[in-house]
Amino acid sequence: MAAPLPPIRPNTLITDDIEVRIVDTNEPDIFTNVRPLWGPPGGRGVYGGTIMAQCLSAAQETVSPSLVVSSMHCCFLLGVSTDTPMVYGVERLFDSPNAATRSICAMQNSKTVFTASLAFRKYANQHIRDKRLHFAPAPIVHPPSTEADPDSWDASRPFESREAYTVHPVPADEAVHKRTILQWVRARGRIPTGRQAHLAALAYMYDSFLLGSVSRVHRVPRYTSCAALRRLEELRGRADPDDISTTVYLEGLARKEKMEFRGLPVPGNEEVSMLVTLTHSIYIHAPAAVMAHEWLLSETHSPWSGDGRGLVIQRWWSRTGILIATCVQEGVIRLNQDTNLPETKL
């Protein structure tokens, strides 16, 4: 039985949210979260990056420190509540001096809510040893200031992000599958030395605005639609502290969306009503270059959407331009619209 979790603390560092511990010393491959799970204000459940990062943290506890994760393949099965601890069961599928494979079953209330398969390998500095090394170059955009963002609407998150589309604008007539979203992301605070913490922090940040990129490239509003603005107006009239926090958070997202869509044609009859991740795969290319508390650049595009689903591909570069990771995510996307109007693109 897991011990009671400590009270939630505001503005926790990302290393707090990714931390796990062994449930019982007699079961060294069973882990649970150390602190309460974080969910976005106004959201329906736990932020997906939390589960992925804690799974990776648990798996890393069962492999040799000389091995680093090279890929992680995740399936989201059920919604996760912020009120109940998670239990992560790690299965050791394969071990050798140069590689390892782990399977993880994540459970809440005795139900499997998430599964993951992870591959680890002994890392060699391929920049020195492999002359055939190649990687896609980073887009040419200006990195943001190292100073903290004065707009603190998202201060509840243990990481911060800044859009780069104002530096690298997307033409209004660009084909949907060619539209890209550029974003700088970094963890708040400083992460201790060691690859494992930085890689788990990166897994935590992967899920930020990833699936939502499908609606963004279609310019379908999520936070500035008429219905979303009505809900926001209702929240403004409430005095409950949770409602106030949610209002500030949603107002910040609405400002960002309004700025992104400024001057672009936006469908007037559609809004995003649901986004749910189905699968998420992560490939780590250069683990030694991952410094999660420094600015990292992500580029996201959606090669396909349809049948109520969407696919997104995201690449991550270090501030020095090294391609460090590639992510692929598929999820369910639902829109609210007038049924008498033509069928949506999604």
UniProtKB/TrEMBL annotation:
Residues 146-333 form the Acyl-CoA thioesterase-like C-terminal domain. Residues 37-120 form the Acyl-CoA thioesterase-like N-terminal HotDog domain. InterPro entries: ACOT8-like_C (IPR049450), Acyl_CoA_thio (IPR003703), HotDog_dom_sf (IPR029069), TesB_ACOT8-like_N (IPR049449). Pfam families: 4HBT_3, 4HBT_3C. One of its GO terms (cellular component) is peroxisomal matrix. Transmembrane segments: none annotated. GO terms for molecular function: fatty acyl-CoA hydrolase activity. CDD domains: Thioesterase_II_repeat1, Thioesterase_II_repeat2. GO terms for biological process: acyl-CoA metabolic process; fatty acid catabolic process. It comes from the Eukaryota. This is Acyl-CoA thioesterase II. It comes from Aspergillus nanangensis. The lineage of its organism: Eukaryota, Fungi, Dikarya, Ascomycota, Pezizomycotina.
